[in-house]
Amino acid sequence: MRVGVLGAGSIGAIVAEALRDGRVPGAELAGVVDPAPAVAGLPMCALPELLSTSDLVVECAGQRALAEAGAQVLSAGCDLLVVSVGALAADGLLEKLLAAGPGAVHLSTGAIGGLDLLRSAALLGPFERVVIETTKKASSLVQPWMSEAEADALRRTSSPVELRRGPAREITAAFPKSANVAASVALAVRNWDVVEAAVIADPAAPATSHVITAAGPAGQYRFEIRNRPSPRTPTSSRVVPYAVLSALEALASPRAVFR
Ligand SMILES: NC(=O)C1=CN([C@@H]2O[C@H](COP(=O)(O)OP(=O)(O)OC[C@H]3O[C@@H](n4cnc5c(N)ncnc54)[C@H](OP(=O)(O)O)[C@@H]3O)[C@@H](O)[C@H]2O)C=CC1
Ligand SMILES: O=C([O-])CC(=O)C(=O)O
């Protein structure tokens, strides 16, 4: 399987290097698209060339890049592994991607786990309540839409502060580099409206945490994830490129894979 990488920052660079170095059985690196990749020595190319040489493209370039290039990837016949899952909160984007084929859409589990169980449980009956609370280092959560006063208070806070709480669709759009996981939970439980998401800034947070609680007819669930942040892009957890590599491994040579 030839794999193209769209976006070579903290996630994509690790994915591309692993593919280039032959560390994913059955998969090889077709090329990389990024105006300024995080590491040197990758086979850079333009998007049209990537699409003509890849069987599958991994998007790790951000929500905007997925919205802009996703349909083009799929209509060129490449499968697409999405990392910026939060882009799918936009009205109609998932439907547009699914209709764009012949390429197939895959979603990375990214920074969290438990999605398989939530997906299974939602089939038994709809969840009554689902909450995901994300806590990150305060300084990494400043957003362009914040007022100067709010951004400044966030940079200088000495105690944890809840920045926003609301529907998953709104929170993932408000924090496009930090709350893709809220969209992943909503897609797993098959219902955007039941999922409440919160983003908490903690100046002293030693790790990024995601706490997911869910209750429904199948049972009650609580997943607590504490990830080390990426040294390069602290909004992203260090495990995310390895979630991508694990997915690529399963797609390229499925051997006793959890599904
Ligand atoms: N599903 C999940 O659990 C998670 C999802 N994510 C998502 O993954 C994304 C990437 O994370 P990360 O690698 O840490 O971010 P980085 O900012 O480190 O890397 C993103 C890279 O993509 C490049 N890029 C942006 N737009 C394009 C484009 N149109 N074509 C090609 N390259 C492009 C950027 O270039 P430049 O800097 O020049 O813009 C940058 O080099 C995040 O934005 C987030 O949306 C992250 C963590 C978890
Ligand atoms: O990497 C993480 O911990 C989560 C993240 O940034 C996101 O969901 O966008």
From TrEMBL:
EC number: 1.4.1.21
Catalysed reactions listed for this entry: L-aspartate + NAD(+) + H2O = oxaloacetate + NH4(+) + NADH + H(+); L-aspartate + NADP(+) + H2O = oxaloacetate + NH4(+) + NADPH + H(+)
Keyword annotations from UniProtKB, A to Z: NAD, NADP, Oxidoreductase, Pyridine nucleotide biosynthesis
Domain of life: Bacteria
Pathway(s) of this molecule: Cofactor biosynthesis; NAD(+) biosynthesis; iminoaspartate from L-aspartate (dehydrogenase route): step 1/1
Residue ranges constituting the Aspartate/homoserine dehydrogenase NAD-binding domain according to the UniProt record: 7-100
Pfam families, alphabetized: Asp_DH_C (PF01958), NAD_binding_3 (PF03447)
Start and end residues of each Aspartate dehydrogenase domain: 161-244
Active site positions, chain numbering: 210
Presence of keyword NAD: yes
Transmembrane segments: none
Residues reported in the UniProt entry to bind NAD(+): 111, 180
Positions in coiled-coil regions: none
HAMAP family: NadX (MF_01265)
Other comment: The iminoaspartate product is unstable in aqueous solution and can decompose to oxaloacetate and ammonia.
Entry's family note: Belongs to the L-aspartate dehydrogenase family.
Biological function: Specifically catalyzes the NAD or NADP-dependent dehydrogenation of L-aspartate to iminoaspartate.
Database matches in PANTHER family: ASPARTATE DEHYDROGENASE DOMAIN-CONTAINING PROTEIN, L-ASPARTATE DEHYDROGENASE-RELATED
Annotated protein name in UniProt: L-aspartate dehydrogenase
Originating species: Amycolatopsis acididurans
Upper lineage: Bacteria, Bacillati, Actinomycetota, Actinomycetes, Pseudonocardiales
Gene name of this polypeptide: nadX
